[in-house]
Amino acid sequence: MLTRRTAIAAGLAAPFVVRGQAQAQTASRAETLLLVQEYGPNSLDMQGIGSSQPVNGVALNCYDRLLRFKPVPIPGGGGNTISMGELEGELAESWQVASDGMSCTFKLRDAKFHSGRPVSAKDVKWSLDRACTIGGFATTQMNAGSLEKPEQFVVVDDKTFRVDFVRKDKMTLPNLAVTIPFVFDSELAIKNSGGDPHAKEWLKNNIAGSGAYKVESWKPGVETIYVRNDDWACGKLPQLRRIIARDIASPSTRRALMERGDADVSYGLPPKDFKDLLDAGKVNVVGVPIPNGVWGCYLNTQVGPFKDVRLRQAVAWVMPYDKILQASLFGRGVSMAGGGAPKVAWPQPFPYTTDTAKAKALVDAAGGPFSTTLYFDAGNATVAEPMAVLIKEALATIGITVEINKVPGANFRTEIAKKTNPMVLNRFAGWLDYPDYYLFWTMHGNNSIFNIAAYQNPALDKLVDAARFAPDKASYDANVIDFIKLVESEVPMVPINQPTHDVALQKSIGGYQFQPCREPDFRYLTKA
Amino acid sequence: MNDMTKADQAPAEIVPALRFEAPPSTSLWAHARHIVAENPVTGLAFGLFAAIVFGALFGPSLVPYDPLASNTNAALQAPSAAHWFGTDQLGRDIFSRVVAATRLDFTIAIASVALVFLLGGLAGVSAGFYGGWVDKIVGRIADTIMAFPLFVLAMGIVAALGNSVTNIVIATAIINFPLYARVARAEANVRREAGFVQAARLSGNSDWRLLLTQIVPNIMPIMAVQMSLTMGYAILNAAGLSFIGLGVRPPTPEWGIMVAEGASFIVSGEWWIALFPGLALMIAVFCFNLLGDGVRDLVDPQRRN
Amino acid sequence: MLRMIGQRLMTTIPSVIGVIIVTFLLTRVLPGDTAAYFAGPAATPQAIAEIRSKLGLDQPIPVQFVSYVGALVRGDLGQSLTTGQPVTADLAARLPASAELTLAGLLLAMAVALPLGVLAAVRQGSWIDHLCRVVATAGVSLPVFFTGLLLVYVFYFLLGWAPAPLGRLDVFASEPPRITGLFLVDSLVTGNFETFRAALSQIILPAVTLAIFSLAPITRMTRASMLAVLGADFVRTARAAGLTSRKVIGTYAFRNAMLPVITTLGMVFSFLLGANVLVEKVFAWPGVGSYAVEALIASDYAPIQGFVLTMAILYVALNLMIDVLYGVIDPRVRLEG
Prior knowledge:
The complex is a heterotrimer of chains A (about 525), B (about 300) and C (about 325).
Chain A: H1 2-9, H2 21-29, E1 32-37, H3 55-62, E2 67-73, E3 80-89, E4 92-97, E5 103-108, H4 121-133, H5 136-144, E6 153-157, E7 160-164, H6 172-175, H7 186-191, H8 200-205, E8 213-219, E9 223-228, E10 242-247, H9 251-259, E11 265-267, H10 271-280, E12 283-289, E13 293-299, H11 309-318, H12 321-327, E14 333-335, H13 356-365, E15 370-377, H14 381-396, E16 400-407, H15 409-418, E17 423-429, H16 435-442, H17 458-468, H18 473-490, E18 493-506, E19 509-510, E20 526-527
Parallel strand pairs in A: 1-10, 1-11, 15-16, 15-17
Antiparallel strand pairs in A: 2-3, 4-5, 5-7, 6-7, 8-9, 9-10, 11-18, 12-18, 13-17, 13-18, 14-18, 19-20
Helix pairs in contact in A: 1-2, 11-13, 16-17, 17-18
Chain B: H1 3-14, H2 28-38, H3 40-62, H4 94-130, H5 132-146, H6 150-161, H7 165-192, H8 195-202, H9 207-243, H10 255-266, H11 272-299
Chain C: H1 2-29, H2 34-38, H3 45-54, H4 61-73, H5 87-122, H6 127-141, H7 144-158, H8 183-189, H9 193-230, H10 233-240, H11 245-282, H12 288-297, H13 301-329, H14 331-336
Helix pairs in contact in C: 1-13, 5-6, 5-9, 5-11, 6-9, 7-9, 7-11, 8-9, 9-11, 10-11, 11-12, 11-13, 12-13
């Protein structure tokens, strides 16, 4: 601050403050990180109802969980990612699954909340109970890992905590490492709750955690400033003392800030900008193919022309996979065309390639021509719109006329919940990287909102359920291979590509860590 | 965008010189020639207008490329001999798209202006002619609309009615309603007691007949100025709506949506994607605005001497 | 005078009521399902229903309207779901930013438009007149978001003259103590000139963008009004009395011509407040316009209603002020009132 003022006082030409003070600021900037993002958190409580995506970042950096995902190097370099099966203790010093496999006992570290009070098993129980009972997204996410009711969470003693399992579920432990089951200072929360058992109002505006960062100031829609918690006990003390996260809606502005070196890190730029930044080489771009994430074209199996499986296959055969990857994602993704034999993985390329003749034959057999409407979320327009235009063009060549309907973000959920849209472009990415988890959300007969194709097939449900709770790896693998074969021929969703999650960082920034919630993890970042 | 219109119209309401009491007697054509000769800018505007009409009528059949055809191998090319305005993200020819878009933009402008002319003009004339409760109701509706930030109101209307060209036209017409209603009301009110109307009334004409034969023809010139001025704003309004994701559906070429698409490419150096449709948009609006001035000069009795 | 203000206020009440009703209905007709949006990506139908009842959206529309008006009377504009804060607090925090930007744009526009308009009127039909017309019309023909982006590209990205379009102050500068909420004023009042410079350098590009857009109405109004005055008898009399042309134009004509221009300025100000929605978006300006757009896109009713109401009230207040000012300047108006 001082240096900056001196620099200006020294007579930089008003009214335009000239660039170049960046050098003058190095002393104060060295331990401060400036992050620019599209929009910031609308709450400080990720368990609360209606929390937006960036709140995950608050949960990640300001709170601790029992477990966390262990950093593993990104194959192409540039930082670390995670691997589903590999966990390490965060608040837990150690943990032990019982010999019958039906519970897990955690030993807690000597960690302190920001208030100075030691973290105890009682706090962990209060927090996990809260996540299971508060309703909304938090509860749904807990249930996805078979964490369903407060009775499962047991305080053994002050520093020992046990989770009883309702069933053997490989997702239970990883689900303790996502951004939902984090630990509050329960005494502080209850004291300020004003009688609400979940202390929702207070926790929405205040941090009561033990995490590596505290929130120094939060101006919703403008900026969030984090400062380091120097007493953090659950890992190596982060290098960065202060993080300023600014909300900049325009991606062009964020890109310009990165190129001029004014911002240190930017999330969520259009793929074109990441490609250009990468090509220019002035800043680092780290890309991780989003685990369990895929852009797909969902074809309604209950109403409209795509009830006919031949037409769904025709779409898979005519899909311009390469063109889309090139013109819409600028190569920042992995094509889902031309796969071989099914593997135990998700997403994976389906056996289809762009083959207009085959597609045309299928449409003719089904009694074409047809006309239909393709929907996508306007919030994803940067990528989805060129995709939709290319699909429209390709389908026109096989006698399917498509009208494009760009649905504003708020209406999109309502639209897909109707399950009457013949064709929808959507990207779904699960936090827990398992094929059965993805299919459970998008194609299972329980008809979640993401089963946009309204696909109903008892045979598939049986295979997915069997895989979810499979007793051993062999039966799991067999079930996965079978359901992948099934959806490859049934194609309720045509996978188009697996997008890359990209982050742009100045060369001076190191220690990038990818998290499934796709929010920045400041705890590992370094600044040279 | 449209917000400006109201302020812009103020002269017509405030400067009393714009009223005239008799139908034009000199030849319009001769007068137009005089105006153009005296004011070259108006001449330019009429020339541009002719070009826009030509583009709207014949443009789509004259362009070198199919404005919808993608060619991902030729994506994001700078302007060249083959692609005069360059190509966009999907390799579509921007020149062809800009020319082809003329028809849609022109249609939006004409349709919304015609709609608000009918609704606002009729409401305003009735309010001015009958006075009383008709006047009160029309006045309240206009006041209520005027109290909104107009662009936000247009956004709300399109969002509520759905994303389509028809709804852009409706939203644009609604936010311009007070303008037309007020001008028409003021003009009709002044003429209600004018000698020629009284004379017609005394000779036994019904109210409706009076309205249609005496009042409406007399306020037409003022309304014509209004219409040519609002045309430009209609296009700007549609462009603003497209920019925030409401409006015309892709891949239809339309200037506003093309600027919005190209906006994100400006910083990365592909300036041509937004620039050319932006220029086309600007020139069209510019032309309509100058034309409005020209039409005003044409009907302004003070300039006839 | 007070009676005039009172009467003037009475006439605005019906339109404010109209605004409340229209806004309420419009936000309820919007097709987005707020509950589904905020229930998050993996919500079950029960979770959505819970949120819907928490928000009171399961009530019949008339009931919702009554509770909305009730809250309004208590000064409660509801809570924004996007920022998680009370709408009143959000608006209060953001209004000074919009006001400062709009005022700066308006002042800038006036500085150019008034002389241009006067000159055009005095030299009617000359090249200055044509130039004035072309410049003003060209300004208003540019979509504001396009102008804004172009300016950012040229002055920030290519030339590096302007600071990063990052809102009202540089990231590392601190806010001046809040007196009026207008950074330029507050920093001057407290004698903090570094902050003043920082704030000034941030506001120039967005203010220019707005100014370009508002050039046309002010220039035209000034020109038209000057023309009318110049043709008036008292000006002819003044000229006949042998006063210098400079004196006639400067004192007699200009002053009288300013009356309708003031009305226009009031209108332009409130239109700009609404129109800077897009400018705020481009320059990451933390004002009320961008707040309303984001709320509209998220089907977040409360902020939209709050924004529109605030704007309507501002508009009414502004017009009232202008009427009063008019009365002060021109006694004839007062008599009629």
